[in-house]
Structures are given as C-alpha cells and as structure tokens.
Amino acid sequence: MIAALHRIKECVERAGGAKAQNLASAINGKTLSSAHKLMEGRKAVGTDGISKEEYGAELDKNLSNLVSRMKREAYKPKPSRRVYIDKPGSNEKRPLGISSYEDKLVEKVVAELLEIVYEPKFCNVSFGFRPKRNCHQAIREVIEDIQYRKTNYVVEADIKSFFDTLDHDWLVKFLEHDIADRKFIGIIKRFLKAGIMENGKTILKEEGSPQGNGASPILANIYLHYVLDVWFEKSFKKGCKGQAYLIRYCDDFVCCFQYREDAERFYSELITRFEKYNLELAPEKTKVLEFGRFTKENRKRRGLGKPRRSIF
C-alpha cells in the first residue's frame, strides 16, 4: 500500500496545488489487501457480524467482489452499528459507530488518500489525528502561548455534538474544492449517507459522521480546517489589535489573546461563523477567561479576586 500511495502522493505534489485526480483508482485489490493486513484482529464487528479472520478466509474472492462493485459504482456501505462508551470526566455516554469489516478496509484507504491531499494544506494550529502530531504537543503549545507570549485572555470552546451535526453538503463542497475525482467523492458521500443501526433499526441521517468510522477524524479536520483554522489565520487575525493564537485538537480548541476586545470579538464572530456552517457552540463549555502570566497582578490592580487556575 505504501508504494501505491507514494505514487499518488507524487502525482498530487506534481499537480502543484491543482485539484487531485484519479484517487478512486488507488482503492484497489493491492491497497485493500494491505489495509486488511494492517487491521487489528480483535476489533468489534459491525452490522455484518464479520471479523477479520472470517473475511480473510476468502480474502482474494472477497476483495475481487468488492473492487468489482466499486468499479461499477455499486458499492454501498452498510449502516454503522451504534454503541455507547463512557465519556471521561462525565456521566454522559459517547456514541460510536462500528463499521462492517469490508467498509473498514475502504475507510482506511480513503483516509490515507485524504491525508496525502490535505496534509500539505492543513494549518500548523491543528494537532488532532494527524501524523507525528498529538494532544501532548497541543497542550505544550497552549502552555507556551500562555507563559511566553502576550496572552492575557483565553477563549476555550467546545462544539456541541460536532460529529453528529457535521453538515454533509458543506463537507462535500470543501472536498470538491481540492479533489476533482467524482467517483472518490461519491464513495465518501455513500459513507455519510449509510446511516446507523441501533436496537435493530436503521436510522438514516442527513448530517454527521459517526465516530469510529476510519475516515471520520480526517473528514472532521477537513471541515474545521475551512470553517475555523483558515478563517482564523487568514481573516480574523488581521483585525486583531494584539497577538492572537489558535490551538485545535480535532473538535476541541483554545484561542489566546493579548487584548480582551479581540477575545470578545472572536467569541461573538465565532457564533455567527459557526451558524453559517450549521455548527453550534456548547455555551456551558465555551467562555472568555482572563488568563496569563500577568493576570494575577492585573486583577489585583483592578480590585478583583484571584483568576481561575486552569482552563482544562
């Protein structure tokens, strides 16, 4: 799979920023077979009830059938099996969508191809679900912005049910901005429309991308790349009177500001920006905080109490 994807990467690089083409052709017997070898054997099964071992018992036959359907555009992903897991630090449950085994293989190759197209485009402010990037780096960046830069105000934000409300039409528009392969985007559309199965009933959804789908993390990054990252870096910051920094880990993000008016303007404009793309901030988890190395002295001078100790 590495060799096949490397050829795609070379084509994308030679295109010099032009729309990527012929991505669907890279979802073939060789790349799917490699994805099968890399798949964990103990993963939970989807609605098909098929495990890696069972699928692999007749691997060549199964992959030949899958590739044939994909070429005829007859491939139709099965609904994801909905399960719930504990949400750390909360009494709530986090919904996950468990894909059928065959769909997991396609998702893995699709995610690899999207990574080739979008890694050169993604902003440095994004740390979640990207190669050689992790949450520890994101936290370190927040600490550096607060301790060593002119940060006096922090906006910590949380998107309400992001994976359940991600707008399909907008996501497709973002993909079409960078990808010219109609068949490839068609595969992603079918994943988005496949729906979920819960308590034996199939629920078709016009929005959202199930957490657990192998391509969901990078699709989420693509969505927020255009909705948040590019807007903040290329547009919003130009109107700031002081320094401003964004740090995002998938759908969680923190913004640091030198001046209160920039922080408050960001909070206000962010609500409007998100409304345009059918996203909503969770008001109980989104706030403007006075925070930074000079906060204690500044608040004492104004006769105010101690600042909040942590933003996490």
Explain what the structure shows.
The structure is a single chain. By secondary structure, the protein is of the alpha+beta class. Helix content is 46%, strand content 13%. It is built from twelve helices and eight strands. α2 (29-38) crosses α5 (101-118), α5 (101-118) packs parallel to α10 and α8 packs antiparallel against α9. The longest helix is centred in the C-terminal third of the chain and has 19 residues, at 216-234. The protein is globular and about 75 Å long.
Distinct helical segment count = 12
Give the number of DSSP strands: 8
Largest sheet: 4 strands, mixed
| Helical amount | 40-55%
Large-scale geometry: globular
Low-confidence stretches: none
Task: List the main descriptive attributes of the protein structure presented here.
alpha+beta, single chain, 13% strand, 4-stranded antiparallel sheet, 4-stranded mixed sheet, globular, 8 strands, 312 residues
Short description:
The protein is α+β, with helices and mostly antiparallel strands and 312 residues long. It has helices spanning 2-14, 29-38, 52-56, 59-71, 101-118, 135-148, 162-165, 168-178, 182-193, 216-234, 260-276, 295-301, and strands at 80-86, 93-98, 153-158, 196-198, 201-203, 244-249, 252-257, 287-290.
Topology overview:
Elements: H1 2-14, H2 29-38, H3 52-56, H4 59-71, E1 80-86, E2 93-98, H5 101-118, H6 135-148, E3 153-158, H7 162-165, H8 168-178, H9 182-193, E4 196-198, E5 201-203, H10 216-234, E6 244-249, E7 252-257, H11 260-276, E8 287-290, H12 295-301
Parallel strand pairs: 1-4
Antiparallel strand pairs: 1-2, 3-7, 3-8, 4-5, 6-7
Helix pairs in contact: 1-5, 2-5, 5-10, 8-9, 8-10
